[in-house]
Write a structure and sequence with these properties.
The protein is an alpha/beta fold. Helices cover 36% and strands 14% of the residues. The protein has 10 helices and 7 strands. Helix 5 packs across helix 8 and helix 9 packs parallel to helix 10. The protein is globular.
């Protein structure tokens, strides 16, 4: 009895959609040419910056501090673990940290547009850059957790920019490399802005500000915390302590922008 020939595998809907999008892209670009993420000038590729905006953004490249992502002015000796003086003097509660860009005038425009200007269309590009900058942290994580907003701020803004970045970061990776995203794992139970405060004031203001949502378990898991800007590290530290107290095996952090340390 002859065996029936195997049926050819049916293409997935996702593959079909990607093929249609790829074929339609030239026509779409002709009618709606891609625009610079920063200034809106016409650019060649989607989700990119024009040459002027690109020059205004300082991308953080190795060597950087393994703990906080701060770039080194001078490369550390090869035999020494790349940790900055600040992290040696006062080690953060998390293990490793990464960031994409230096928080300066160029990157501030992108952050504020996403955060306060309803430019949620920026998240895919910024998240993809974060995926490249923190690739080693992402693939080793079990859970990805965005830093939460206080409920009234979330109500006014309508979205959590950290959650959008976390989602976009994972979408930029192959499905097999994506850890699980838990967008509401942490809850901010007390409001208050940290803008303009010194490091000590930020730390005191965030004491008891976060908790793990009931029903969420991080015990024995490696967690990657995500936020838009790493300023003093007080927010990351407060969230990390909650996760570690709840049994997390390890916490790493990644942000889009990193505020330089004094003298950095």
């Amino acid at each position: 009895m002859e065996e029936a020939a195997p049926r050819p595998a049916r293409p997935s809907w996702r593959l079909i959609a990607e093929t249609v999008q790829r074929l339609a892209r030239p026509a779409i670009d002709l009618v709606l040419p891609p625009r610079c993420l920063g200034c809106g000038a016409i650019v060649q590729d989607t989700a990119s910056l024009c040459p002027s905006c690109w020059r205004s953004v300082t991308f953080l490249t190795p060597p950087v501090c393994a703990s906080c992502g701060q770039p080194f002015t001078l490369p550390p000796p090869a035999e020494v673990e790349p940790v900055c003086v600040a992290c040696i003097a006062k080690p953060p509660p998390w293990q490793r940290g990464r960031a994409v860009v230096r928080y300066d005038d160029g990157s501030r425009r992108l952050v504020w547009a996403l955060k306060h200007g309803d430019r949620t269309d920026l998240a895919p590009a910024l998240g993809a850059w974060m995926a490249r900058a923190a690739a080693d942290l992402v693939v080793e994580a079990d859970l990805v957790v965005p830093v939460p907003l206080y409920r009234w701020r979330l109500f006014r803004r309508r979205y959590n920019q950290a959650a959008l970045l976390a989602q976009a970061m994972l979408r930029a990776l192959p499905a097999a490399q994506r850890p699980r995203l838990v967008p509401d794992a942490l809850v901010r139970v007390r409001g208050g802005t940290q803008a303009g405060k010194r490091r000590g004031q930020r730390q005191r203001g965030l004491q008891g500000a976060f908790r793990l949502r009931p029903g969420v378990s991080v015990r024995g898991l490696r967690v990657l915390l995500v936020d838009d800007v790493h300023t003093s590290g007080a927010t990351f530290a407060a969230c990390t302590r909650v996760l570690m107290t709840s049994g997390a095996l390890r916490v790493d952090v990644v942000s889009f922008a990193r505020v330089p340390l004094p003298g950095g």
